[in-house]
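hey can u check if this looks right to u? its 173 residues, i copy pasted from the old doc so theres a chance i mangled smth
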Amino acid sequence: MTEVEQQVQMSKKLPSIDEYNQRRMGSSAVRVCLAVTEYCYGHEIPPSVIEDEDMETIWNETNVIVSTMNDLLSLRKEMMQDQVDSLVPLLYVQHGTLEAATEKIMEMLEASVATFEEASLRLLDRYFADAETHRKLLQFIHGCQCACTANVNWSDGGSRGGGGSSGSDRISE
């Protein structure tokens, strides 16, 4: 937990949606995991590609997707711990019902996935002629997609989300 997260949790004031999202994007470990993804594939994407606007969009949207899904799927656990430092309660306050808050989160996720896909296609098109870079981008984009789905499995599959069995229990099933 960052110092800013702790200050918010100790405060009696709820952050705005924008304040929450800005803090959340900076405090999650998604970008670190994406950097490790590149390392795991055993290659280095050229700096000019890393600095490309569409590549930055891919990193940002992966962070949004993972963080938002985590907030949604962790709701039960956070309610049991009496936490409100999550997008769901903030949207509940803004929209008045859990159903409306959930619908808003789904809209946010759909928009983020669409932005991710559009940026990915543009980036792949831009580097199509460079076979090596194109191959690395395909792998990296696939790694980002896997990060999103792995987060859903991790958040929803066990005690992390507040229900079900732990991961070690599920291995023996």
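Confidence is low (pLDDT under 50) at residues 159-173.
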